[in-house]
Amino acid sequence: MNIEWILSNYGVLLPEAVLTLFAFAIILIGLKYRSILGYLAFVGGVVSLGLVIMNFSVNATLLYNSLVFDPLSQFFKVVFLLVTLLTIIASLRYYHGNAHQGEYYFLLLIATVGMMFVASANDLVSLFVAFELGSIATYVLAAFDKENPRSIEAGFKYFMIGALSSAILLLGMSLIYGITGTTNFTALSQMSFEMSGYTLAALVLIIAGLGFKMALVPFHMWAPDTYQGAPTVVSAMLAAGSKKMGFVAAFKLIVLALIALRTEWYMVFAVIAVITMTYGNLVALTQRSLKRMLAYSSIAQAGYIAMALVVVSYTHVDSVVNLAMGGALFYILSHAFMKGGAFLAVGTVGYMLLRDKIKVDEDDIDNFSGLSKTAPITAFSLTVFLFALAGIPLTAGFVSKLLIFSAAIYGGLAWLAVIAILNSALSLFYYARVVKVMYWDKPKFDLKGEPTAYVVAVLLALLGTVLLGVYPGPFVDVAMKVAEVFL
Amino acid sequence: MQEYAVLIPLLPIFGFILTLFLGRKLPGQGSFIPVLAIAGSTIISVGVLLEIYPSGEVIHQSWHWFSLINIGILVDPLAAVMLCMVSFVSLIIHIYSMEYMKGQGERYYAETSLFTAGMLGVVIADNLFLFFLSWELVGLCSYLLIGYWYRKPSAASAAKKAFLVTRVGDVLLLAGIFITYANMIKFAPDSQYPLSLLEIFRHITDIPPLQLTLITLLFLGGAAGKSGQFPLHIWLPDAMEGPTTVSALIHAATMVTAGVYLVARTFPMFLAAPYSLVVVAYLGAFTALIAATMGLVMNDIKRVLAYSTISQLGYMMLALGSGAIIGMAAVGIAMLHLISHAFFKALLFLCSGSVIHATHTNDIRLMGGLLSKMKITGYTMLIGSLALAGIPITSGYYSKDAIIEAALEYGLGSGDLLPYLMGLFTVLLTATYIFRAWFMAFVGKSRLPKGKPHESPWLMTVPLIILAFCSLVFAGAVNSWFGGKIFVEYVGRTFERIAGTDPEVLSAMGGYHLMEVHVEHSFLILPLAFAVVGVLIAAMVYWAKKPDPESIVSPTNPIYRLLITKYYELPIIDFISMRITMGVAILTKVVERIFIDGSIWLITQTGFLLGEILRMAQSGIVRHYATAVALGTGLLIIGLWGWL
User: Fold this and answer.
1) DSSP labels, B42-110
2) How far is A248 from chain B (nearest CA, A)?
3) CB-based contact B625 A157, cutoff 8 Å
4) Do the Cβ atoms of B640 and A195 come within 8 Å?
5) Residue B550 CB burial class (10 angstroms; 0-12, 13-18, ≥19)
6) Deepest in the core among A447, B300, B419, B547, taking most CB within 10 A?
7) Residue B266 has pLDDT above 70, yes or no
């Protein structure tokens, strides 16, 4: 068993291995040198990202087919790592000098490792274990600002509902195992199911369990409280990264493994998608807290992405399935940039208020008045992110919506597309309101300069949002190629 | 050089960005940056032309952009000569404005650079989408530059007028592009990029001819807006409110030729469209004539030149229209005059700029006797005027003569001599109005109330000399002196190497009978005779003062009144804009307020109400959240059970 043998057989695991290694190194080094931890975590993330991209078109299975490495898993790993990197850059400033930095970066990297394993899971057991790894680390992260009661509350609620959902998910999984006698996705995908109360219950329980992570209505209620209370850098990570873990799990478990049940889940997802987007947009209308508003907008966006699941279950035309899933993947990539960027931009403002010792609610919309004059880069970037979320052309959000909505129309679900488009129009109202406040109202506070680390993170997200919007061609091609897994 | 062709429009864009952001800190407000950038474009353009000239090949590069749209460049002979002209003339004007616009702000240099980039984009685009984007960029920059002195109310309103009037054309062009797209999707569904010019040409025969007529007439509407054809010419004279160098750019290099170029670029579509070319010919001839009559009475030196531009653009359209008989050669003839005109019109504008620089007035009634004080300006302007009038050995003589001859061939071939006659008569008027202006400004006694005019600095006079040289020799050199009609043949064959543009097939589709028409040589002397007579009339009235101009120019003379009011342009426009447009606007306002605003109000209020109600569910108590999860799961199971 020499090193070459390990590399040739387990080389695909290198990104996860590197990240884990860095995580433990950070804990150790953090005992003595705190100031370099963030940079260390960043390096770990970059190395891991490089390894994933180098191995993008891999096709391998490991550990008795319980882990699979294919373009789909690599695609999601790229998304997770990008979000983690953005979060790390912003955290460099936010947790500068914090005594518990070691734990913070450790948890962040471990959460990412968990999410990456979810992307690679090919078995109910490996999926569940990885899912828990990715979740538990984020429960702690949400409560990381332990002097802030809101942060504690956020972590607590998140954990309670998370535990409940895990139980539900596990119940659904055990039912599946009971019915079929296998836990492997490849085996499951070749099964034909007999319709019974058990299969039905198993399906709904799994959807409910994963719906918690994806923040689909009515399993979403933790999300606004958690996103608002958690440190904003963590909210960014939760909304842009962790949520996608729910989606990849759903894609793998429902679209790949339980494809035989597609007529059953068609109705479930149709109802959930419509309720989710409408509910998210309606409640977002009246929010004064920007983080809450972004949380609800995030719920609405989950509704749009879930449309792909409806289309896939409804149509059997390969090209439409490909368009829907490719669109969903592209949407997930764009959403990582635009939602992550939006949270980070809001976090920038919160940080500046804290730094300049202005005592207000950190994310009240009033704090953003006249931001274009006091913090022009943040204001401009936030404007682009919000317009992207609304789906204005030349941004990533437009292309994403275009792909998913046209998949719905080609798939014969025009009514769904109409509802989604009306929802998008509705959403513009609350996005544009923030832009109006930032550009037309008079500045309320005198802010002293924008923090560099935050600005870098925000600008990187901006670059992603604009690049995907202006030159989407190659990225759409990649997403479509990756989505061929689902055919 | 070919691989650098894509840089031709990009360099001025870089110039724009650099100048806009760094110009303030650089010497001379960074005016050298656009000059360098455009010099680069010029060098590449000329290099590309020299490379592709011997073989007559076509450069086409294309990259996927998104869905059915590509980004690409197409350099065929037509585009190549146009690129050279645009970048070269723009370069000269930029050098001149280094002195002329000194200390007027870096925004000027940045915007002219962008203006040039837009025009180069129009020329080099290989698809209608990119074409339209560049076209709009040109429109935007013209608005910004005409209104450069935006604190002056007349400049601000002139800019607005230019923007609004050309917008009418833009809407028509856009409609034409939409219809093209719809037709391509319908009749050529396997086409990868339905708006690519090459694809459109390949599929012309698949599109129904009457659809083509509709498309090309809409294109012609767009061209009329940009190129100041009747009745959308009204913005061009007012556009003189911008700095004179901007007028030179608009009139020679960057804007008004875009419309003519559009028709030339899509000429295969015109050739396959029944009636369209006849409309082009008539529109051109009529515009040429009517603008020339108005040019006769203007007192602002720049306005005289503005009307002459409209009139000359009319000639170019007439040349294109005569393609109904002479075929693709019409493109070559139109382009020959376009480039020749660009040289002498840029020259005339820069000369008038030099005069205005020295006398601080635009009014030719206040000038006079300037020749002795401004020798270089005076003589170069004389060359420009001779070229405009079409007196032999100047460039204008050869290029305009070719058009009149083409119009005559069209007349003899189709039996419809009216466009030819209008064009011929315009020659006389052209010579008269331009020499009226020259004589009033440069000979006789000075009528300046104060100040001593002097020659402009070398940075301004050198460009004049270069342009004067070009105005003297260009058309003769490329199309007459050395071995016949080199230019017209080269450019006229631009479509030969592009698939689907066989003139025989296309003209059969459009119902035009292409033929070789034999023209009596004695006819060809007519334009020259008319031009000489025109100059003589101007000389008699405004130099020798026999008869005295005062006796003709009086408000009691009905013809003069008709012309000085520009055919009652103002009341007519007022009626259209104030009565008709306002009526429609008020109607739509009522509809909008009640139905649209009302329904939006209703929707938002309902939305808020629902949002408030739903928000109450968010109690903040974890127990409730858990209940929601459990309830949701239960309901889903029950619902699904019922549904199945």
Assistant:
1) HHHHHHHHHHHTTTT--EEEEEEEETTEEEEEEE-HHHHHHHHHHHHHHHHHHHHHHHHTTTS-HHHHH
2) 21
3) yes
4) no
5) exposed
6) B419
7) yes
Backbone angles phi, psi at A184, to 5 degrees: -85, 135
Residue in A218, A285, A286 nearest the CB of B629: A218
Specify the pTM: 0.68
ipTM of the complex: 0.85
Q: Strand B69-75 vs strand A60-62: parallel, antiparallel, or unpaired?
A: unpaired
CA distance linking residue B184 with residue B269, whole number of Å: 13
The shortest CB-CB distance from A201 to any of B617, B618, B637 is to: B637
Tell me: pLDDT of B20 over 80.
yes
Omega prior to A443 cis, within 30 of 0: no
Contact B49, B72 (CB under 8 A): no
DSSP A148-176: -HHHHHHHHHHHHHHHHHHHHHHHHHHHH
- Beta-carbon contacts of A139 under 8 Å, excluding residues fewer than 6 positions away, are A155, A158, A159, A162
Radius of gyration of chain A (CA): 21
B627 contacts chain A (CB < 8 A): no
Nearest to B231 by CA among B175, B156, B290: B290
CB B321 within 8 A of CB B280: yes
Q: Collapsing DSSP states into helix, strand and coil, what is residue A244? A: helix
Give the torsion through C-alpha atoms of B488, B491, B492, B497, to 10 deg.
150
Q: B604 CA to chain A: closest CA distance, Å? A: 8
Q: Is the pLDDT of residue B391 over 90?
A: no
pLDDT under 70: residue ranges of chain A? 1
* pLDDT, averaged across chain B: 86
Q: Which residue in A217, A242, A207, A212 sits closest to A423, CA to CA?
A: A217
pLDDT of B462 > 80? The answer is yes
Termini Cα distance of chain B? 69
Question: The tokens of B42 are what?
Answer: 């010029």
Cα–Cα–Cα angle for A349, A350, A352, rounded to 5 degrees: 65
What whole-number distance in Å separates Cα of residue B257 and Cα of residue A258?
A: 64
Is the four-CA dihedral B579, B582, B585, B591 of positive or negative sign?
Answer: negative
d(CA A338, CA A297): 11
Chain A's closest residue to B625, CA to CA, is A221
CB contact under 8 A, B628 and A218: yes
Type of residue numbered B281 = A
pLDDT computed for residue A331 by the predictor = 94
Task: Write the pLDDT tens digit of every residue in B183-218.
Answer: 888 888 888 888 888 888 888 888 888 889 999 999
Residues recorded for chain A: 487
Classify burial at B160, counting beta carbons within 10 Å of its beta carbon; exposed 0-12, middle 13-18, buried 19 or more: middle
Nearest CA to A312 among A330, A333, A326? Answer: A326
Min Cα distance B18 → chain A (Å) is 20
